[in-house]
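Budget justification, computational time. The allocation requested in the original proposal was used primarily to generate structure tokens for proteins on the priority list. As evidence of use, we reproduce two of the resulting records. The first is shown immediately below.
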Amino acid sequence: MTTLAKTKGDLLICCFVGMLGAALLPVATAGEKPSAAQLIDDLMWNRGPIGGPFTLTDHEGKRRSSTEFTSKLLVIYFGYTYCPDICPLDLTAIADAIERLGSDSGKVQPLFITVDPERDTPERLALYVSSIHPRLVGLTGSAEEIGKVALAYKAYFARSAGGSSVDYAVDHTSFIYFADPTGEYLGFLPPATDAERSSQAMKLLLGIPK
């Protein structure tokens, strides 16, 4: 499915999304947590408010607000440190994309929000984000806090069935979100977007000539 994500100033980033078999997933009824299909569909068609400012706990144990990154383009990614494949690949591509901006790289602030706050302590996040990019900020919080931010960005996550209390997987969507420090949502890119394409999207949003 090819979709268009709306960006600031009515610019458009074309996104290719083919994940989770969205059309085949059940849709939540009233009072239930929205399904992956519902959240993806809302994101695809820019349905309802998306994004907004948030405050979570960073990988140093400090409370951090998304509004404190003045004049930065925020690149937000939801995942978890025990993710075996897509998270490290996407985060590495994001880090590479930022470095491709050269002298403009400082205009971008990458944020990694865990969807596994039970295991992703600040200490574990600190080790993880430092291996990806020196300016990547890992964020965690209570289950309620994480759930609220994820819902605002139409990000789905749920603990997979099976596994032990300490050894389990978390199913989650893996979109790359763009926002400004005020919390205004600017657009998204799909999972597995390569560094070159991500870098071009960042340049577009920063107003940097190609």
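The second record produced under the same allocation is shown here.
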Amino acid sequence: MEQVFEEVHVARSNALQSKVRARGSYHVGPLARYSLNFDKLHPRAQRAAAAAGLGKTCFNPFKSIVVRCVETVHAVEEALRLIDVYRQPARPDVPFQVKAGRATGPPRHPGACSTTATASTTRATSSTPRSARPPPRAR
């Protein structure tokens, strides 16, 4: 690595700056991630990039916030994909239920363990209509 990169101290900073020996400075951060991984972006993120006027590469540092927005679209789509995988029950014939503050039934994701429901989850899944419940006590 020392043959390719060098670290240089500049007078205006206490931090060392890295340079490629053969050509000088190089980009890191959102612009580099975007340009190197455009083909791996979710199709919706690629469409968002096109709608924002970005091509497959971007070298304009003033567009880094736009590139971060495209990355956010990709991250949201990936999160939704993972949630869909997590939602699929391991055994569809055994329903997942919450009773008395404890989760029953098989884990929702293969390899996951049963979880304990919180009080708010238990309240939210109660079959008693909110209007029929007694009002909360004053403290």
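A brief technical remark on that second record: The radius of gyration is 26 Å.
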